[in-house]
Amino acid sequence: MLSAQERAQVAQVWDLIAGHEASFGGGGHGVLGLFTVYPSTKIYFKHLGLCLDETQLLTHGQRMLEAVGVAVQHMDNLRAALSPLADLHAQVLRVDPSNFPLLIQCFQVVLASHLQGEFTVEMQAAWDKFLTGVAVVLTEKYR
Ligand code: ZNH
Description:
Layout: H1 4-17, H2 28-37, H3 54-73, H4 78-81, H5 83-93, H6 100-115, H7 121-139
Helix pairs in contact: 1-7, 2-3, 2-6, 6-7
Protein name: Hemoglobin subunit mu
Family: Belongs to the globin family.
Domain Globin: 1-143
C-alpha cells in the first residue's frame, strides 16, 4: 500500500511524463533497454519478427506507457483497472513473472535519465513501489 505522500510523488512524476510521452520514447526506450540488458526477454516478442523494428518497439512502449497512465489514475483500485491486462499476461502472453522487475528497473532508468534532478530519491522509491504493485496485479492470475 502506498502512503498519501508516495501517491502524491507518483502523480507528480506522471504529470511530468503526461503529454510528453514521445520524448520518453513512448516507453520504447525502456523496452529497448530491457532487450539490451536482459536479452532473454526478447523471446516473448518473437512473433513480431526476428528483428523488432523501431516502430514496433515504440508502439509497444506507447501501449505500456498508456497502461501505466491508467494505473496512475486508479492507484486505489489497481486490481479492477488492470484486470483485462492481467488476464492477457497470465493466459495469453505467459510472460514469466520474473521479467517484470527487469522492465521496472529499465523504466526507472528511462525516468531518471530524462528527468535528471527532478526525479528525486523519494520519487524513485515511490515509483518502484507503485510499479511493483502494478506487476503484482499483472502476475497474480498466473496458475
Ligand atoms: Zn506487457 C502487451 C502492459 C510487462 C510482454 N503489455 C502489452 C500491452 C500492454 C502491456 C498495455 C498491450 C495489450 C494489448 O494490445 O491489448 N506489460 C504492460 C505493463 C507491464 C508489462 C504495464 C509492466 C509494468 N510485458 C511486460 C513484460 C513482458 C511483456 C515484463 C516481457 C518481458 N506485453 C508483452 C508482450 C505483449 C505485451 C509480448 C504483446 C505484444 C504484441 O503482440 O504486440
